[in-house]
Amino acid sequence: MDTQAMINMLLTYICLLIVITFHEFAHAWVAWKCGDPTAKSQGRVSLNPVVHMDPIGTVALPLLALFLVAADSRLAGFIIGWGRPVPVNPFNLTRRRLHDTLISMAGPAMNVVLAFAAIILAKVLVVAGQAPLAEFCIKLAVISLFLCFFNLLPIPPLDGSHVLQHAIGMSDEQYLAIARYGFLIVILLIQIPAVRTGLALATSGTLQLMASMVGLT
Q1: Which structural domain range is residue 162 located in?
Q2: Read out DSSP for 147-185?
Q3: Which of 63, 167, 187, 210 has the most CB atoms around it within 10 Å of its CB?
Q4: Which of 141, 136, 146, 144 is nearest to 119 (CA)?
Q5: What are the start-end ranges of the E strands in 7-82?
């Protein structure tokens, strides 16, 4: 692996850490505002990446995936990463269906906000003649948007599954039964070309829309 590939891999991982940190912070903050202090009492209402990192999902697997991508290995497509799940006690929520939906959507919503902020910063950096830093911001925006749409897939434990559960009135027992196989289902789902294409189109389309809004072409 050459030096440039290692640098790109490191920058990608830094972007991933930033995105996961803001994503999990949003979940924790909204849960706190909805009346559940569980995450706050565990120090999760924080932008400190360490408190949101999972040894396997945030460190081992993403780094392995990046190495496999650099090695042009197809095995990278079978690896997914994640942050430490934000603990939510549903008994602390006065309007459970609404509040749980808001908490679930907070992460993807934060991904969109973070991506747009990164695009705005990229525009400023381009005007200032700082192209390499602008490229980093664009990479951050791409990763943030991709994880937004990925997390909207209605498969446990992804955020979209909570929205679906409440929309169709699925019982907790049914949800947990599906959640047992959730990661396997997700891994298999993202191997389907149509799903991968859909995620890529949603990401690139939203990125282009944001770029056009700030005059970044």
Answers
A1: 3-213
A2: HHHHHTSSSTTSHHHHHHHHHHT--HHHHHHHHTTHHHH
A3: 210
A4: 141
A5: none
The pTM of the full predicted model, rounded to 2 decimals, is 0.91
- Which range among 3-12, 40-49, 91-100, 176-185 shows the weakest confidence by mean pLDDT? 3-12
Opening angle at CA 70, ends 68 and 73, nearest 5: 40
CB of 209 closer than 8 Å to CB of 115: no
Map 105-145 to HEC letters: HHHHHHHHHHHHHHHHHHHHHHHCCCHHHHHHHHHHHHHHH
If you search the block for the tokens 């997390």, which residue do you land on? 151
Instruction: Kindly tell me the sign of the dihedral angle through the C-alpha atoms of 129, 135, 141, 144.
Output: negative
Q: Say if CB 103 and CB 27 are below 8 A apart.
A: yes
Which positions ≥6 away from 152 have C-beta within 8 Å? Answer: 108, 158, 159, 160
- Convert the pLDDT of each residue in 28-80 to its tens digit: 999 999 999 999 999 999 999 999 998 888 888 877 877 777 666 665 555 56
Catalytic residue among 15, 19, 23, 24: 24
Active-site annotation holds for 24: yes
Domain count, the chain: 1
How confident is the model over 148-183, as pLDDT tens digits? 999 999 999 899 999 999 999 999 999 999 999 998
Whether residue 109 contacts residue 26, with contact meaning beta carbons closer than 8 Å, is answered with: yes
